[in-house]
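Workshop exercise sheet. Pairs work together: one partner reads the sequence aloud, the other fills in the structure field after running the prediction. Swap roles for the next sheet.
Pair: D.N. / O.F.
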Amino acid sequence: MSISPSDLSAFLEVVRSGSLSRAADALGVTQPSVSKAIRRLEQATGVVLLERGIHGARLTGDGELFHESAKRFDAHRFELERVAGDLRARHAGLLRLGITSAASENPAVQVLADLVRRRPGMRIRLKIGKSDVLDACVEDGELDLALVPAYPGQALRSTRVELGEDRVQVVVRQGHPLLAQEGLELHSLVPFSWVMAPQHSAARRHLLAVFEREGVPVPQVTLEADYTSEAVMGIVAATDLLAMTPSAMVRGWLGRVFPLKIPALELRRSLVLLSRPNARWTPLMSEFRDHLAAAKRPA
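Structure field:
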């Protein structure tokens, strides 16, 4: 018995949403249609793929194995459809891009704006998340590319293209007590609380490793934020909180916040573009990469 791509799409949506009814809403079909699609797949495989209950649907052991292959098939099918579309219209196409920050200082923002002007028929699917999550999405075929910062020693599974370096500094508000101190060291920061990335993020792990290496107590965290946004900077500028901030963001807030001169906390990270290993690069992906590389090239 052959397997229908539409049945696979229904199965994957049920797994994503955890419910047949939510999957039906997302796909714009009726719940009985989704139920029939799952039954056809289970007949084709000869095993039960999903356990249904009052709390939704979840994968069986056999379903987990089938799900991994279904995801790979869906990613390959999507790539074929996208290539066909790009061949039909060179100025169209879809770019599925991941970034770690929606701030206007992100170099991807201007490049995307330029591409939209050049390719009025193109579409962009943008995902904002932490670098580890985006790396996994690229490897699984859910994203074409992801632009992420990478810290020294950080392991990334996707293929990476180095685009340059970025400096990250600890900043404080104008008039902060630390600005009046001379010979600042990590121990000088102990009385103050921090803005930090969520636990288990690469940025936070890297920062905490510095404190551990220097034998300084782990910082107290008052505010967790996925990235350094305008809102975060506004809070830092109005409180005694400390924050690790990319140099591009610091430049836009100089006068309201000031970097502290603490060599141990002047961190450098790479800006890298991630793609799936052995992926076929479409013209749209290549154009984004080339424009991004030009934007990061020194004048």
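Discussion prompt: The chain has a mean pLDDT of 87. What would you look at next?
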